[in-house]
Amino acid sequence: MTQLRWFITGCTSGLGEAFVRSILARGDKVVASARGDVSRLSSLKDAGAEVISLDVTSSPSDIQAAAAKVLKGGPIDVLVNNAGYIEAALAEEASYDNYMSQFETNFFGVIKTTQAFLPHFRERKSGTIVFIGSSGGIAGEPGAAPYCGTKFALEGWHDCLKQETAHLGIKSVLFELGFFRTKIMHPENVRTFRAPGIADYEHIRNMVGQFVEGMNGHQPGDPKKAVEVILDFVRAEGVAEGKMLPDRFPIGTDCLATLRKKCADTLVVCNEWEHVIRSTDWE
After folding, report:
1. Fewer Cβ atoms within 10 A, N terminus or C terminus of the chain?
2. What keywords is this UniProt entry annotated with (predicted)?
Protein backbone atom coordinates (compact mmCIF):
# COMPACT_ATOMS: atom_id res chain seq x y z
CA MET A 1 0.00 0.00 0.00
CA THR A 2 1.19 3.54 -0.71
CA GLN A 3 2.38 5.67 2.18
CA LEU A 4 -0.42 7.62 3.88
CA ARG A 5 -0.28 10.90 5.77
CA TRP A 6 -2.54 11.06 8.82
CA PHE A 7 -3.82 13.91 11.01
CA ILE A 8 -4.77 13.04 14.61
CA THR A 9 -6.37 15.19 17.31
CA GLY A 10 -5.74 14.72 21.03
CA CYS A 11 -2.31 13.07 20.97
CA THR A 12 -0.79 13.81 24.39
CA SER A 13 -1.66 10.38 25.76
CA GLY A 14 -3.93 7.36 25.45
CA LEU A 15 -5.36 6.44 22.08
CA GLY A 16 -3.92 9.52 20.38
CA GLU A 17 -0.36 8.70 21.36
CA ALA A 18 -0.91 5.03 20.47
CA PHE A 19 -2.22 6.06 17.05
CA VAL A 20 0.88 8.11 16.30
CA ARG A 21 3.37 5.45 17.34
CA SER A 22 1.56 2.66 15.47
CA ILE A 23 1.19 4.77 12.32
CA LEU A 24 4.91 5.55 12.31
CA ALA A 25 5.72 1.88 12.91
CA ARG A 26 3.81 0.99 9.74
CA GLY A 27 5.82 3.45 7.70
CA ASP A 28 3.19 6.15 7.27
CA LYS A 29 3.51 9.85 8.03
CA VAL A 30 1.51 11.51 10.78
CA VAL A 31 0.74 14.98 12.07
CA ALA A 32 0.04 14.85 15.81
CA SER A 33 -1.94 17.65 17.43
CA ALA A 34 -2.89 18.71 20.94
CA ARG A 35 -4.15 21.85 22.59
CA GLY A 36 -1.61 24.17 24.16
CA ASP A 37 2.15 24.00 23.98
CA VAL A 38 3.48 21.52 21.39
CA SER A 39 6.28 20.64 23.82
CA ARG A 40 3.74 18.19 25.25
CA LEU A 41 4.22 16.25 22.01
CA SER A 42 8.03 16.31 22.09
CA SER A 43 8.39 12.53 22.46
CA LEU A 44 6.20 11.99 19.39
CA LYS A 45 8.19 14.56 17.44
CA ASP A 46 11.39 12.75 18.41
CA ALA A 47 9.79 9.53 17.12
CA GLY A 48 9.26 11.13 13.70
CA ALA A 49 5.85 12.79 13.85
CA GLU A 50 5.04 16.31 12.74
CA VAL A 51 3.40 18.26 15.56
CA ILE A 52 1.01 21.19 15.72
CA SER A 53 -1.04 22.96 18.38
CA LEU A 54 -4.78 22.58 17.84
CA ASP A 55 -7.59 23.09 20.33
CA VAL A 56 -10.78 21.58 18.90
CA THR A 57 -12.84 24.05 20.96
CA SER A 58 -11.29 26.98 19.06
CA SER A 59 -13.25 28.97 16.51
CA PRO A 60 -13.90 27.46 13.06
CA SER A 61 -11.56 30.03 11.50
CA ASP A 62 -8.71 29.09 13.86
CA ILE A 63 -9.16 25.40 13.12
CA GLN A 64 -9.33 26.08 9.39
CA ALA A 65 -6.08 28.05 9.67
CA ALA A 66 -4.42 25.13 11.46
CA ALA A 67 -5.66 22.74 8.77
CA ALA A 68 -4.28 25.01 6.04
CA LYS A 69 -0.92 25.02 7.79
CA VAL A 70 -0.92 21.23 7.92
CA LEU A 71 -1.88 20.95 4.25
CA LYS A 72 1.01 23.17 3.22
CA GLY A 73 3.23 20.28 4.25
CA GLY A 74 1.43 17.90 1.90
CA PRO A 75 -1.94 16.21 1.44
CA ILE A 76 -3.74 14.46 4.28
CA ASP A 77 -5.15 11.02 3.51
CA VAL A 78 -6.71 10.16 6.88
CA LEU A 79 -8.29 12.35 9.57
CA VAL A 80 -8.75 10.80 13.01
CA ASN A 81 -11.11 12.72 15.31
CA ASN A 82 -9.74 11.41 18.59
CA ALA A 83 -9.82 14.33 21.06
CA GLY A 84 -12.38 13.96 23.85
CA TYR A 85 -13.02 13.63 27.57
CA ILE A 86 -15.73 12.44 29.97
CA GLU A 87 -18.04 14.83 31.82
CA ALA A 88 -19.57 12.65 34.54
CA ALA A 89 -22.92 14.08 35.61
CA LEU A 90 -26.50 13.01 36.14
CA ALA A 91 -29.03 14.18 33.56
CA GLU A 92 -30.92 16.57 35.86
CA GLU A 93 -27.93 17.73 37.87
CA ALA A 94 -25.71 18.65 34.91
CA SER A 95 -25.78 22.39 34.25
CA TYR A 96 -26.07 24.00 30.84
CA ASP A 97 -22.36 24.83 31.08
CA ASN A 98 -21.55 21.18 31.85
CA TYR A 99 -23.39 20.08 28.74
CA MET A 100 -21.91 22.81 26.54
CA SER A 101 -18.37 22.09 27.70
CA GLN A 102 -18.80 18.41 26.83
CA PHE A 103 -20.39 19.11 23.46
CA GLU A 104 -17.82 21.75 22.53
CA THR A 105 -15.06 19.13 22.67
CA ASN A 106 -16.67 15.80 21.87
CA PHE A 107 -19.17 16.90 19.23
CA PHE A 108 -18.69 20.43 17.90
CA GLY A 109 -14.91 19.98 17.97
CA VAL A 110 -15.32 16.96 15.70
CA ILE A 111 -17.61 18.88 13.35
CA LYS A 112 -15.28 21.87 13.07
CA THR A 113 -12.18 19.74 12.49
CA THR A 114 -13.92 17.55 9.91
CA GLN A 115 -15.32 20.57 8.07
CA ALA A 116 -11.83 22.09 7.97
CA PHE A 117 -10.47 19.09 6.05
CA LEU A 118 -13.50 18.22 3.90
CA PRO A 119 -12.72 20.77 1.14
CA HIS A 120 -9.30 19.11 0.77
CA PHE A 121 -10.87 15.64 0.56
CA ARG A 122 -13.51 16.85 -1.90
CA GLU A 123 -10.89 18.38 -4.14
CA ARG A 124 -8.86 15.17 -4.17
CA LYS A 125 -11.96 12.94 -4.46
CA SER A 126 -10.47 10.75 -1.75
CA GLY A 127 -9.82 10.61 1.98
CA THR A 128 -10.81 8.63 5.05
CA ILE A 129 -12.36 10.12 8.19
CA VAL A 130 -12.18 8.13 11.42
CA PHE A 131 -14.57 8.95 14.26
CA ILE A 132 -13.96 7.63 17.77
CA GLY A 133 -17.36 6.68 19.10
CA SER A 134 -18.23 4.78 22.25
CA SER A 135 -20.46 2.14 23.77
CA GLY A 136 -21.92 5.27 25.39
CA GLY A 137 -23.28 6.15 21.95
CA ILE A 138 -25.11 2.82 21.77
CA ALA A 139 -26.72 2.81 25.22
CA GLY A 140 -26.80 5.38 27.97
CA GLU A 141 -25.33 4.80 31.42
CA PRO A 142 -26.14 6.42 34.81
CA GLY A 143 -23.94 9.42 35.52
CA ALA A 144 -22.82 9.91 31.93
CA ALA A 145 -25.62 12.03 30.45
CA PRO A 146 -23.40 14.74 28.90
CA TYR A 147 -20.87 12.24 27.54
CA CYS A 148 -23.44 9.81 26.14
CA GLY A 149 -25.33 12.74 24.64
CA THR A 150 -22.28 13.70 22.59
CA LYS A 151 -21.63 10.15 21.43
CA PHE A 152 -25.25 9.58 20.40
CA ALA A 153 -25.13 12.88 18.49
CA LEU A 154 -21.93 11.78 16.78
CA GLU A 155 -23.60 8.57 15.59
CA GLY A 156 -26.34 10.52 13.80
CA TRP A 157 -24.02 13.16 12.34
CA HIS A 158 -21.67 10.49 11.01
CA ASP A 159 -24.56 8.67 9.31
CA CYS A 160 -25.57 11.86 7.48
CA LEU A 161 -22.02 12.78 6.49
CA LYS A 162 -21.21 9.31 5.17
CA GLN A 163 -24.21 9.29 2.84
CA GLU A 164 -23.61 12.86 1.66
CA THR A 165 -19.92 12.38 0.80
CA ALA A 166 -19.79 8.79 -0.51
CA HIS A 167 -20.13 9.90 -4.15
CA LEU A 168 -17.02 12.09 -3.68
CA GLY A 169 -14.75 9.14 -2.90
CA ILE A 170 -14.63 10.03 0.81
CA LYS A 171 -14.82 7.15 3.27
CA SER A 172 -15.79 7.48 6.91
CA VAL A 173 -16.15 4.96 9.68
CA LEU A 174 -17.14 5.27 13.34
CA PHE A 175 -15.41 2.97 15.79
CA GLU A 176 -17.45 2.34 18.94
CA LEU A 177 -15.03 1.65 21.79
CA GLY A 178 -15.77 0.12 25.15
CA PHE A 179 -13.62 0.82 28.20
CA PHE A 180 -9.93 0.94 27.26
CA ARG A 181 -7.02 1.40 29.63
CA THR A 182 -6.11 5.01 28.88
CA LYS A 183 -5.98 8.02 31.19
CA ILE A 184 -9.46 9.19 30.20
CA MET A 185 -10.89 8.09 33.58
CA HIS A 186 -7.99 9.42 35.63
CA PRO A 187 -9.12 11.98 38.23
CA GLU A 188 -7.13 14.66 36.39
CA ASN A 189 -9.07 14.04 33.17
CA VAL A 190 -12.63 12.99 34.02
CA ARG A 191 -14.76 15.89 35.24
CA THR A 192 -16.94 14.38 37.94
CA PHE A 193 -20.12 15.91 39.36
CA ARG A 194 -19.21 19.58 39.07
CA ALA A 195 -22.85 20.66 39.51
CA PRO A 196 -24.59 20.77 42.93
CA GLY A 197 -25.99 17.38 43.93
CA ILE A 198 -29.68 16.57 44.40
CA ALA A 199 -30.42 14.43 47.45
CA ASP A 200 -32.75 12.06 45.57
CA TYR A 201 -29.83 10.95 43.40
CA GLU A 202 -27.20 10.55 46.11
CA HIS A 203 -27.08 6.75 45.90
CA ILE A 204 -26.65 6.84 42.12
CA ARG A 205 -23.98 9.53 42.40
CA ASN A 206 -22.08 7.44 44.92
CA MET A 207 -22.39 4.34 42.75
CA VAL A 208 -21.06 6.18 39.70
CA GLY A 209 -18.20 7.73 41.67
CA GLN A 210 -17.17 4.29 42.92
CA PHE A 211 -17.42 2.88 39.39
CA VAL A 212 -15.17 5.58 37.93
CA GLU A 213 -12.63 5.16 40.72
CA GLY A 214 -12.64 1.38 40.40
CA MET A 215 -12.47 1.38 36.59
CA ASN A 216 -9.55 3.81 36.33
CA GLY A 217 -6.50 1.77 35.42
CA HIS A 218 -8.51 -1.46 35.27
CA GLN A 219 -10.36 -1.04 31.98
CA PRO A 220 -10.50 -4.35 30.06
CA GLY A 221 -9.42 -2.98 26.68
CA ASP A 222 -5.84 -2.62 25.42
CA PRO A 223 -5.60 0.71 23.52
CA LYS A 224 -2.68 -0.45 21.36
CA LYS A 225 -4.71 -3.45 20.15
CA ALA A 226 -7.68 -1.19 19.37
CA VAL A 227 -5.47 1.16 17.37
CA GLU A 228 -3.96 -1.72 15.40
CA VAL A 229 -7.45 -2.89 14.39
CA ILE A 230 -8.42 0.62 13.28
CA LEU A 231 -5.22 0.95 11.25
CA ASP A 232 -5.92 -2.40 9.61
CA PHE A 233 -9.37 -1.19 8.54
CA VAL A 234 -8.09 2.10 7.14
CA ARG A 235 -5.17 0.48 5.34
CA ALA A 236 -7.23 -2.58 4.23
CA GLU A 237 -4.69 -5.00 5.61
CA GLY A 238 -4.33 -7.46 8.48
CA VAL A 239 -7.73 -8.37 9.94
CA ALA A 240 -9.47 -6.17 7.34
CA GLU A 241 -7.66 -7.37 4.22
CA GLY A 242 -10.12 -8.01 1.40
CA LYS A 243 -13.07 -6.80 3.47
CA MET A 244 -15.40 -3.84 3.03
CA LEU A 245 -15.01 -0.87 5.36
CA PRO A 246 -18.09 -0.95 7.66
CA ASP A 247 -20.13 2.14 8.54
CA ARG A 248 -19.45 1.54 12.24
CA PHE A 249 -17.53 -1.09 14.14
CA PRO A 250 -17.62 -2.02 17.85
CA ILE A 251 -14.28 -2.62 19.57
CA GLY A 252 -13.96 -4.34 22.94
CA THR A 253 -15.76 -7.25 24.60
CA ASP A 254 -17.83 -4.90 26.77
CA CYS A 255 -18.94 -2.84 23.78
CA LEU A 256 -19.92 -5.99 21.90
CA ALA A 257 -22.13 -7.05 24.83
CA THR A 258 -23.76 -3.59 24.94
CA LEU A 259 -24.46 -3.63 21.20
CA ARG A 260 -25.88 -7.15 21.25
CA LYS A 261 -28.24 -6.30 24.11
CA LYS A 262 -29.38 -3.11 22.38
CA CYS A 263 -30.05 -4.96 19.13
CA ALA A 264 -31.89 -7.79 20.89
CA ASP A 265 -34.03 -5.42 22.95
CA THR A 266 -34.88 -3.35 19.87
CA LEU A 267 -35.86 -6.46 17.91
CA VAL A 268 -38.15 -7.57 20.73
CA VAL A 269 -40.01 -4.24 20.58
CA CYS A 270 -40.29 -4.43 16.78
CA ASN A 271 -41.64 -7.98 16.86
CA GLU A 272 -44.00 -7.70 19.85
CA TRP A 273 -45.46 -4.31 18.93
CA GLU A 274 -45.39 -4.47 15.14
CA HIS A 275 -49.19 -4.45 14.80
CA VAL A 276 -49.45 -1.31 16.94
CA ILE A 277 -46.59 0.41 15.16
CA ARG A 278 -48.11 -0.30 11.76
CA SER A 279 -51.61 0.74 12.88
CA THR A 280 -50.67 4.43 12.74
CA ASP A 281 -50.35 4.56 8.93
CA TRP A 282 -53.06 6.09 6.71
CA GLU A 283 -55.55 3.52 5.41
Report:
1. C
2. Oxidoreductase
Catalytic-labelled residue, pool 85, 96, 99, 147: 147
Residue spans per domain, the chain: 5-254
pLDDT at position 108 is 98
Does the active-site annotation cover 99? Answer: no
Topology of 5-254 in CATH?
Rossmann fold (3.40.50)
Give pTM, 2 decimals: 0.93
Check: CB of residue 8 under 8 Å from CB of residue 16.
yes
Residues in Cβ contact with 68 at an 8 Å cutoff, skipping those fewer than 6 apart:
none
